[in-house]
Amino acid sequence: MASEDVVGKTSATIANLAEEAKIASEGVKAPSRHALLSICKSLVAGGVAGGVSRTAVAPLERLKILLQVQNPHAIKYNGTIQGLKYIWRTEGFRGLFKGNGTNCARIVPNSAVKFFSYEEASKGILWLYRQQPGNGMPDAELTPVLRLGAGACAGIIAMSATYPMDLVRGRLTVQTDKSPSQYRGIAHALGTVLREEGPRALYKGWLPSVIGVIPYVGLNFAVYESLKDWLIKSRPFGLVEDTELSVTTKLACGAVAGTMGQTVAYPFDVVRRRMQMVGWKHAASVVTADGKSALEYTGMLDAFRKTVRYEGFGALYKGLVPNSVKVVPSIAIAFVSYEMVKDLLGVEMRISD
């Protein structure tokens, strides 16, 4: 009789453990599926934001690159209006959007990774910050400096992951109908660069990109989030009546963030783009009359030195005007598109959460 009681109790214990394990297993799976779905939605929102914002300003993006790398001894583009008119006259409407397909193929995954990385980096940095004594845990919030760090991490990860596409985009954007040899598309360009210049060529200009992306993306996120927080908390001039900013106000925050970030980082973007053209003997716009490339650099510092020495300090800001015209709506549209798509997809977490 005693043995039967023991067996019965043992069986009941095993059944209870099995039931608890089942409940625990289901409890783990549900949040995991929910988290995975949330990640996918966040990536989609970031990708859509990047594609929409870049397509909207594609003509200005192309003109900026052409101004950055054009031969100083054979000037074709003298300014924003003249440059756009010249492209329209010589290449037609399609010329204004040349390279935009490649740009979207790059910017969609880049933007998706960037926004998602920022959110994850923000959570990680905030967690570490709250572990430090004297930071007011668990109520501590991200400071502008911490947001700068999270944005820098996000920019480096996204840029590094898609850099070969950026190099190819730059070359497809620069080539014209008069280029001696034509890249026929993304795959052909990647294959040609690998075959003629080697795998390392796909990362030409990576170092100035890394250095430049820290203040650029970092300031974008830090200024955007800090402005939003300040407006919500202080409600200056009666602009904010509740805790939710209007689309117009968000656009203004994004515009300010984009202007500050691109002004600080722009010289690195010029050097990066010039280094990407080194070794491309068929780039018509950067080749001199005797067939020699006007862009020959041994590294980042050499590119800075030669650019300033032969063209003056102002050359580091070539294309700044069309880029300024472009970057304000581009960054603003990207931030607003991202939050709107996340709202449509039902993602609970916003950038600033």
UniProtKB/TrEMBL annotation:
Main location: mitochondrion
Xref: SUPFAM superfamilies: Mitochondrial carrier
Signal peptide: none
Compartmental location: Mitochondrion inner membrane
InterPro entries assigned to the protein according to its UniProt record, in alphabetical order: MCP, MCP_dom_sf, MCP_transmembrane
Domain of life: Eukaryota
Gene Ontology terms: cellular component: mitochondrial inner membrane
One Pfam assignment: Mito_carr
Lipid bilayer topology: Multi-pass membrane protein
Record has Plastid as a keyword: no
Coiled coil: none
Keywords for this protein: Membrane, Mitochondrion, Mitochondrion inner membrane, Repeat, Transmembrane, Transmembrane helix, Transport
GO biological process, one term: transmembrane transport
Solcar repeat positions: 37-124, 142-230, 245-344
Similarity comment: family membership: Belongs to the mitochondrial carrier (TC 2.A.29) family.
Identification of the protein by name: Mitochondrial carrier protein
Organism for this UniProt entry: Deinandra increscens subsp. villosa
